[in-house]
């Protein structure tokens, strides 16, 4: 169902392999129960417990434990003394997750709960990547297929991009701040360039660790108002909407960043029918209350995996002026 994209990372000496979620929406690496079957800290000769407390609270879910250091390897890259959270308490949100940790070193250390540099920042500092970029390829509706060339089976390429996964030229977008991979979101439409659900610019956070797209409730309402017959679908939770499935044929989904429009496929917007034989389908855009900032949009995988169809895949670069490529 394309809910989560994850892969393997090696920790310790000798190396122990565990699975992690590669998340551009946070900045801490942590492993769940570092005495688990995937990673047993006493078996690593390079493991060090700092004794300092560690905790992270996400949009949904939280973890806590203590801060540790060890050798961390991702693909053909490695950091000798990478800080990470050795987690022994998780909220129920992580109970059914197939991965054993979150590789959240893909945002910037300015938002890291650990207060330490991220894995990617350490790679740049030690000169381990020829070019300070990383890129993602997210496949649709298949267990395997998100791998990129020279990435050892990972859904991302460290210090590189896979030219076989896209056509055309890159579009560089300046970041709003060096925190999340946030850009100026200037358009949001179900009808292409002819309509816009935004009356003001939003901060669009590009987040590989989020499945759907989250916006303020008023923005969600204005977006679905462009699709005749749309209505709230509270049976699936607050903020969900349903719309006539037949509308798919006429939708021209578009998101604007920095006044540049990017189309995305309706296959990724339509989450399925509300029931067997139903003529209504559930949309992938949610309106979020509970203190969600009124100027923020979290752009998740339903848009990012669509980029491979129309535009170059997102390639996140830390150039001097720090920009995002789509």
Describe the fold and architecture.
The protein is mainly β and 326 residues long. The chain has 2 domains: 6-158, Cathepsin D, subunit A, domain 1 (Beta Barrel), CATH 2.40.70; 166-325, Acid Proteases (Cathepsin D, subunit A, domain 1, Beta Barrel). Helices cover 8% and strands 37% of the residues. It has 5 helices and 24 strands. The chain has helices at residues 119-125, 217-224, 266-269, 301-304, 307-310; strands at residues 6-11, 16-22, 29-32, 48-57, 62-74, 77-90, 101-103, 133-136, 156-158, 172-174, 177-178, 181-189, 202-206, 213-215, 231-232, 241-244, 254-257, 260-263, 270-273, 280-283, 285-287, 296-299, 315-317, 323-325. Strands 11, 12, 13, 14, 17, 18, 21 and 22 form an 8-stranded mixed sheet that branches. The longest helix has 8 residues, at 217-224. The chain is globular, with a radius of gyration of 20 Å.
Instruction: Give the H and E element order.
Output: EEEEEEEHEEEEEEEHEEEEHEEEEHHEE
What fraction strand? 35-45%
The helical percent reads under 10%
- How many strands in all? 24
CATH fold annotation of the largest domain: Cathepsin D, subunit A, domain 1
The secondary-structure class comes to mainly beta
Write the topology of this structure.
Layout: E1 6-11, E2 16-22, E3 29-32, E4 48-57, E5 62-74, E6 77-90, E7 101-103, H1 119-125, E8 133-136, E9 156-158, E10 172-174, E11 177-178, E12 181-189, E13 202-206, E14 213-215, H2 217-224, E15 231-232, E16 241-244, E17 254-257, E18 260-263, H3 266-269, E19 270-273, E20 280-283, E21 285-287, E22 296-299, H4 301-304, H5 307-310, E23 315-317, E24 323-325
Parallel strand pairs: 2-7, 3-6, 13-22, 14-21
Antiparallel strand pairs: 1-2, 1-5, 3-7, 4-5, 5-6, 8-9, 8-23, 10-24, 11-12, 12-13, 12-17, 14-22, 15-16, 16-20, 17-18, 19-20, 23-24
